[in-house]
Amino acid sequence: MASHLLARREAREGFLFALPYLLGMLVFVLLPLVAVLGMSLTGWSLLDAPTFKGFANYAKLARDLEFRGSLGVTAIFTVGIVALNLTVALLLASLLNVRLAGIAAFRSMVFSPVVMPIVAWSLIWKFLLQPQGPLNTGLQHLGLDANLLLNPKTALGTLIVIEVLKAVGLNTVIFLSALQGVPPEQREAARLDGASPWQVYRHITLPMISPTLFLVFLVTVIGALKVFTPIWVLTGGGPAGATTTLIVAMFKQGFTFFEFGYASAIAAVLFFAVLLLTLLQWRLRKALVFYED
Amino acid sequence: MRTDAVSAGARRAERLPARPAWTLLLYVLLALVCLPFVLPILWMFLSSLKSAQGIFGSPFGLNVDAGLKNFTQVFAGYPFARQYLNSLLTLAISVPVTMLLAATAGYAFARMRFPGRDVAFVMTLAAMMVPAELVAIPQFIAFKNLHLTNTLVPIILLQIFSATGALSVFLMRQHFITLPRELEEAGRIDGLGTLGVFRYIMLPLSRPVLATVAIFAVLNSWNDYFNPLIYLNDEAKMTLPLALQRFTDPLGGTYWNLTLAASVLVALPVLLAFLMAQRTFIESLAASGTKG
Amino acid sequence: MRHRTLPAALTSFLILGGSAGAADLRFSTWAGGDGLALLQQLAQEYGAKTGTNVKVEVTPFADYSRKLAVQIASGDAPDIGWVAERDVPTFIASNNLANLSALGKDASFNLNDFATSSLALWKRGANLYGIPFSNSPLVLFYNKDLFKQAGLADPTVQYAKGQWNYTNFQKAALAIKQKTGSSGARVMRLDPKAWAGGLLAVLWSSGGGVYDKNMKCNLNSAGSLQAFGLMQNMMFKDQSMPRPGDQTSFDGGKLGMYFDNISYAGQLKDAGFKWGVAPLPKGSAGRVTQLGQAGYAVFSKGKNQAEAVNFLKFLASKENMARTAKFFPPPRQSVLKSSAYLNANPAVPASALKTALISQLGQARVLQTDTNWLKANDLITGSLDQVFQPGANTKAILDRTCQTVDGL
């Protein structure tokens, strides 16, 4: 009886605790999202009245070469960003996790691209990556015919590197704080038992920070799928569609061509793909994460 | 598990290498690794002191031909000071509210059973993934009907409840599920109610995660471009990322020298805040002994 | 007391932004700096004259039409505003611009003062959907110092002798490249997405273009291919023309010649070199320059159309266009030919303005597009990325492009 009462009280209190956020999310995100799913069933140019088209937009997606191309670009971009970002962030965090006079300055340097406004950030990269700019001529001296950002073969990879350079500071800081939470006593004990530094890292440090790794992994995957402005200002999805990710394709349809019904269909595909991926990761976390309730 | 004598020692980073030669080598290595990260921002600082001719004439030259002229012009010719204030105000409201709502909702998701909890949590995960551009139109119609367009209100509310908010709730929940239940029980024995347990036991143990949430919230609020673009019509109401697009000639051609000077002013406070807070931030994260 | 006033002040700051006052009319623009100040001044004068309160709303140029579309879609359209050239066909086709043909009968407005060619973009049959405020032909900016160093005759001199054609243009560019090390000539803007500004003049002057008379894709015609051939030669053989992606800009002083609208002169105020303006070179099909336009339009979903038309008449009147002409080349003939306009820019002497700008208006063209322009533009941008690569198979690329563009 008493436990029943307690459960009811917990339910009431839990509901009240979550309510302010849930209410806002419902009104400002979920209802608009439902409306957008509805829009994906219409032909709507934003500029005139919507007309109901059923699943015609989705049928068109299946035939749309740019959309199909953007699926591949999105996959490469996302995998590239996540792999490179997490690896570099972990390496940097391990390197910056030393006690050294002036280490704060080095940490801030790695973080500094994060705070740079995107207009300034894209301008310097446009200078650096000019066809005859310093980076390309450097590579040309090595015998490569490089035009990194304007050659469809190299543009996506270049964009991935630039984006990781910009964003990796944030993940580095989070990893750094996780690394500092690993008690050195455990590592020293392992070392006394004859473990190599790599074994200590692999079997003690990494498992200890695995919850952080998982969180950062999830956030980075979602972030990579949503990267828009850096692509838009650097390449606009070009050259020849080589950097048109799903979100760029959606933006182009919706806000450049004003085909908002069609853009909503692309968005719906993107949304469900990400949701599926996230739920999958959620399932996998038990296998990946060392300890959690 | 908690902050006891053992983990107090854990707060320390890797020990200093023993020999000075190694220390020197480490410095060289650090400098080399940090170079590609720090060069762009150094270039931005340098270019903000150049004229447009200087920036495009020799983009990597050291000719700072404009001195501080760009900076004075940014303030004299444009409502930049006012726009700065707008961004600060947006930040000052949205960041603490995001932290508070994320903490309460995250706590409820982690620790309390209530009907619809799991559905609501999946919806929160979903909200993390919704790009702002996608839901802009229905949101705009809602705010128009509330007569709140061309104000900072939608900017702030969308910061709190959209992707940033959802991410924050998610981070808080992940943190709260790792805290031992015994803590709450001890609090209840001491006569604290749910609110008391949350306020006096759980929140103080959450400072590092709150710091992470704060970093995300500050960066997202400070850099938000799309929503201000859609909602704000007056130059005097604009926030900084939008303001950075307004240093143009009469037909819209960019004055890069002014844009870069303004960019410096946008980046500098965040960078300084990080430099000053990084030690506290990184160590407070580590100190809590949270596993995530 | 303090506790009560602080939230109140905060609320008013958030909601009203300090400046209250109901607007009777909303005017939307992407103007910046002095141009915006002038428009605000005009709005105020109109308010003082008529009692109608006009509010000027601004959006960055890059996202101007996006914001406008969101406002229209949400039932929050402004009453009147600027419309960019690229968006005109789409906005007309979707019935978002009000028909202004009644202005033709308004003697005081005197629509005849506008050259017929300057209204072509805005007309559908007898209907008129906007009034241009800027009618800006491309001119050639050239760096006098570099011409002197290379021992070349100025383009104006060559023009006077009737020798200023694309062959001599290419030669001059090459000479500058070889003798000064600076780039010879740039036709397109820095942003590859803005390819239409510049490239079209070259295409048209050699008999090509984006569309032919029947609005079929014309990018793969012999004339167009000749023009692309010239540019590819200059980019990759002579190396006298910066490739797309290159950031060499004219105001940096390391570029001999550059095509842009006359308003670009505003960015050359502090240039550390001598420069001049000249007509574009002549091609096998004539000396055709491109007119860039932007105009005022009344939005048909605005709430106050009649008043908006009145404000448009005020803005585009002879007196006020003479004032905006300081920034935007005026489409009104009477203003364009006035000595006040010709002598307004101390950096460009009246004689140069006459030769480079006014004498070229007869052969100037506006890019006529249709409703699919926004998509076609995107496709063409993508294929130009491929055309301007060394060793590109131009014909094959453009054949494919035209097939897709015609299939839209």
Automatic annotation (TrEMBL), chain A:
What name does this protein carry?
ABC transporter permease
Cross-referenced PANTHER family, in alphabetical order?
Answer: ABC TRANSPORTER PERMEASE PROTEIN, DIACETYLCHITOBIOSE UPTAKE SYSTEM PERMEASE PROTEIN NGCF
Cellular localization per UniProt: Cell membrane
Question: At the top level of its lineage, which domain of life is listed?
Answer: Bacteria
Q: Can you tell me where the transmembrane regions are?
A: 21-47, 67-92, 104-124, 155-179, 200-225, 263-284
Q: Which UniProt keywords apply?
A: Cell membrane, Membrane, Transmembrane, Transmembrane helix, Transport
Question: Which family does the record assign?
Answer: Belongs to the binding-protein-dependent transport system permease family.
Q: Name one GO biological process term.
A: transmembrane transport
Question: Per its UniProt record, what SUPFAM superfamilies does this chain match?
Answer: MetI-like
The record's section on Pfam families has: BPD_transp_1
Q: Which InterPro entries match?
A: ABC_transporter_permease, MetI-like, MetI-like_sf
Automatic annotation (TrEMBL), chain C:
Keyword terms: Cell membrane, Lipoprotein, Membrane, Palmitate, Signal
**Residues of the signal sequence?**
1-22
User: Which chain regions cross the lipid bilayer?
Assistant: none
What Pfam families does UniProt report for this protein, alphabetically?
SBP_bac_1
Gene3D superfamilies, per the entry: Periplasmic binding protein-like II
Hydrolase in keyword set: no
Q: Which PANTHER family match?
A: ARABINOSE-BINDING PROTEIN-RELATED (PTHR43649), POLYGALACTURONAN_RHAMNOGALACTURONAN-BINDING PROTEIN YTCQ (PTHR43649:SF33)
According to UniProt, the name of this protein is: ABC transporter substrate binding periplasmic component
* Source organism of the structure: Deinococcus phoenicis
**Which taxonomic lineage does the organism of this UniProt entry have?**
Bacteria, Thermotogati, Deinococcota, Deinococci, Deinococcales
